[in-house]
Design goal:
The chain is an alpha/beta fold. Helices cover about 30% and strands about 20% of the residues. It contains 24 helices and 37 strands. The strands form ten sheets. A nine-stranded mixed beta sheet has the order 2-1-3-4-7-8-11-10-9, sandwiched between helices. Strands 27, 28, 29, 30, 33, 34, 35, 36 and 37 form a nine-stranded mixed beta sheet that branches. A four-stranded antiparallel beta sheet has the order 23-22-25-26. β1 (about 5-10), α1 and β2 (about 35-40) form a beta-alpha-beta unit. The radius of gyration is 34 Å and the shape is elongated. The relative contact order is 0.06. The model has no long low-confidence stretch (mean pLDDT about 90).
């Protein structure tokens, strides 16, 4: 079959109103066009499977930018993160890759770009993953046109014009190349000017909008953006009335019976891209349209009475454009009365600063799936101002907890946003520890074309041009999140400096008194505290907690188990590492000695409650008797109490192997001495699952991951 249009998309296609490509396919087919779908192609050859379309290829990475899909906020590949169940196969910069494949195999074919990736890269933008400015994605793909934001009207108009062999210039909601700028266009600073000035980048950022005709020069041509078309309630009612099969892939289970209520957002949060994708105006479906869809769902063979979600960008923005008071409340109340409906869940987030008490009461009473989700994002006033996040979170929280009790809300927060240092992260951490259900604390990701990303790249607030602190180092970003999500205790700074192995505690105190120590860029005084998550600098140089290390040393006779001694040889002469011994072997005892800088691991090995066994070989001066064996097995009375029962194996009459599960000082030597046996030598050969093997005296080896895990499992 020869299709009119072939969509190549970087996500799984499913015939459901939550799938944007499905809506476009239904719309085009309703208007007489044939549409083929190639989903998530891995190999270049896969894009040739449906042949060449009569009109155009529609290319999109999907609803998520492929770089955000494939990488964590710290630029780690999600596929390589063992803690994530990640099995995506979308290439980096999927829109560019797919376009180049089409150019290679179908020369002369029209290419229409759409989706989030193309929308947010339509002008010069900062690319976080390459840490540089990139030109419009039109330049990288050599596509014919970009459909930005909502796409139904544009894609249908493009199809009609190409079918009639008409030019596709001048379509609202699209971007194209042009050699000139029409009169009614606002010119953004050129790509070249932006490259040379971060202040100019801020000026360009302030001009970005979907509501105006914009132009930007890149090389010798201009990128023209035709302002977005006007979408209305009747349009959305039409698009969501198509007879979708509503089958969903596994990852969408739990959302099969969700109902979209509206598009657009009036929040204009600095870090959010919705205003540049869905627009900053609310477009609501009519109440009748939504209730009709809910009634139809009750007839679906798999429907069991629960609407999974009423969804939109902040569900309580529904109806703000309809000029009907309490539009969402009225919709919910009517929906609850529909025959076959047990519950209408609200799983999407609400904008708490716009939520009336009446709405909150009703959502918690009738529509709470598990919790009502809100996104305060931060609690520091300066950061909230940079984020453009209004609202009195504490008053909102106080009302909900007083009226409905705790555990009714869950919260989403963000750290490492421009303006956030360790001080602000600690402030947020202190607040979060008072909350239950702080579900998600994410590290800010600079997505293309947002105001926050402009701050991140320039270090300036684009509105005021004033400098903004930006945490650029990954180490600080991780520390900010760690201080929020961990339960790290605070200690006096001199103790931390000493524990890091930088110097003695007394020397650290001297450095503090001399004003040479800073914590989170603030000079401290004696008595100040910090945690391991804080950034400590001495003379401007950051000191760090050393990497945890674990070694097994074969201690020889003739040295003491200590880090330092002014007169005697210590075990540290055999291992030049920033570690210390776990437990003790006396001067005349040889064998297995664990060396580490991990206090938790050391405690696990030494503390009697963990009952980690230690096994020793002991050479004695005469044959051991049955009475002596039984005494060791039942317990021997010493000055500090009776020993716990031990295991003993007679290797030969003058060589025994004894396994103990307690940590009394010099226990083997004292037990055997109490029983009248003189010691020729003692050698520890095993601790838990660890053995010496063929390790020579004075040598050491690093413990493996499995060695360490076995100890921690005790």
């Amino acid at each position: 079959m020869e299709y009119d249009i072939i969509f190549i998309v970087g996500e799984e296609f499913f015939d459901h109103p939550l799938c944007g490509t499905a809506i476009l396919k239904r719309l085009l087919e309703t208007n007489g066009f044939t549409v083929g779908i190639i989903e998530k192609p891995i190999k270049e050859s896969e894009i040739t499977e449906l042949g060449k379309p009569k009109l155009f290829f529609g290319i999109s990475s999907g609803s998520i930018d492929s770089m955000i899909r494939n990488y964590t906020p710290l630029k780690k590949k999600r596929a390589e993160d063992k803690n994530l169940n990640y099995n995506e196969t979308v290439p980096d910069r999927a829109t560019i890759i797919y376009s180049n494949w089409v150019k290679q195999h179908f020369k002369g074919s029209k290419i229409v770009l759409g989706g989030t990736e193309a929308t947010l890269r339509r002008f010069t933008h900062y690319d976080y993953w390459q840490n540089r400015l990139r030109k419009s994605i039109l330049c990288d793909t050599r596509a014919d046109i970009i459909v930005y934001g909502q796409a139904e009207k544009q894609i249908l108009e493009i199809a009609k014009r190409l079918k009639e062999n008409k030019p596709i210039k001048g379509i609202k909601g699209t971007c194209i190349f042009s050699n000139t700028i029409p009169e009614d266009f606002i010119e953004l600073p050129s790509h070249e000017k932006i490259l040379n000035s971060k202040t100019v980048f801020c000026e360009a950022q302030n001009l970005l909008t979907n509501e105006k005709n914009l132009a930007q020069k890149a090389d010798t041509r201009y990128i023209l953006q035709y302002k977005s078309p006007e979408y209305k309630t009747l349009d959305l009612d039409y698009y969501y009335s198509f007879p979708f099969k509503r089958n969903v892939p596994d990852y969408m289970n739990g959302f099969q019976f969700s109902v979209v209520t509206h598009r657009g957002c009036i929040g204009t949060c600095s870090f959010c891209s919705v205003s540049l994708t869905s627009g900053n105006k609310i477009i609501s479906r009519s109440e009748e349209s939504i209730l009709t869809e809910i009634k139809q769902l009750t007839k679906h063979p798999k429907f069991k009475g629960n609407i999974d979600d009423l969804t939109g960008p902040s569900v309580n923005m529904y109806g703000m454009d309809l000029k009907k008071p309490n539009a969402l409340l009225n919709l919910l109340r009517k929906g609850r009365l529909i025959k076959g409906i047990k519950k209408i869940n609200i799983r999407s987030g609400i904008k708490f600063d716009l939520a009336s008490k009446e709405l909150i009461d009703e959502l918690i009473r009738y529509h709470r799936f598990d919790t009502i989700r809100i996104a305060p994002e931060h609690i520091n006033k300066n950061i909230l101002k940079l984020m453009n996040k209004p609202g009195d979170f504490h008053s909102f929280l106080k009302y909900v907890e007083k009226t409905h009790g705790k555990n009714k809300l869950s919260f989403y927060f963000m750290t490492a946003h421009p303006g956030s240092g360790m001080k602000e992260a600690k402030e947020l951490a202190s607040e979060i520890k008072k909350l239950t259900n702080a579900e998600n604390v994410q590290i800010f990701t600079p997505t293309p074309m947002t105001i926050s990303t402009c701050m991140y790249y320039t270090g300036l607030d684009p509105k005021t041009k004033k400098k903004v602190y930006v945490p650029y180092e990954y180490s600080e970003k991780k520390k900010q999140k760690r201080v929020i999500t961990s339960n790290s205790e605070e200690h006096r700074v001199q103790k931390l400096i000493s524990s890091y192995g930088y110097c003695s505690r007394r020397r650290a105190e001297e450095l503090i008194q001399q004003g040479q120590v800073q914590v989170n860029n603030i000079t401290i005084t004696i008595g100040d505290k910090a945690s391991e998550d804080d950034i400590i600098k001495i003379n401007g140089k950051t000191i760090r907690k050393p990497k945890k290390e674990y070694f097994l040393l074969h201690k020889p006779v003739g040295c003491i188990t200590a880090v330092f001694d002014s007169t005697r040889k210590t075990v540290m002469e055999y291992i030049q590492k920033n570690v210390y011994p776990v437990g003790r072997l006396d001067y005349n005892t040889s064998g297995l000695l664990i060396m580490t800088n991990d206090g938790d691991f050391a405690n696990k090995v030494m503390h009697p409650s963990h009952e980690i066994s230690k096994t020793y070989l002991a050479g004695i001066d005469k044959d051991i008797t049955q009475r002596q064996i039984e005494a060791i097995q039942t317990g021997v009375y010493l000055k500090d109490g009776k020993t716990a029962p031990a295991e003993i194996r007679v290797v030969n009459p003058k060589l025994v192997e004894i396994t103990v599960h307690e940590g009394k000082n010099r226990i083997i030597r004292r037990m055997l001495g109490k029983l009248g046996l003189r010691i020729r030598f003692i050698k520890r050969v095993r601790v838990g699952n660890l053995t010496l093997g063929d390790l020579e005296e004075g040598a050491y080896r690093e413990l493996s991951r499995s060695d360490i895990e076995q100890i921690f499992k005790h």
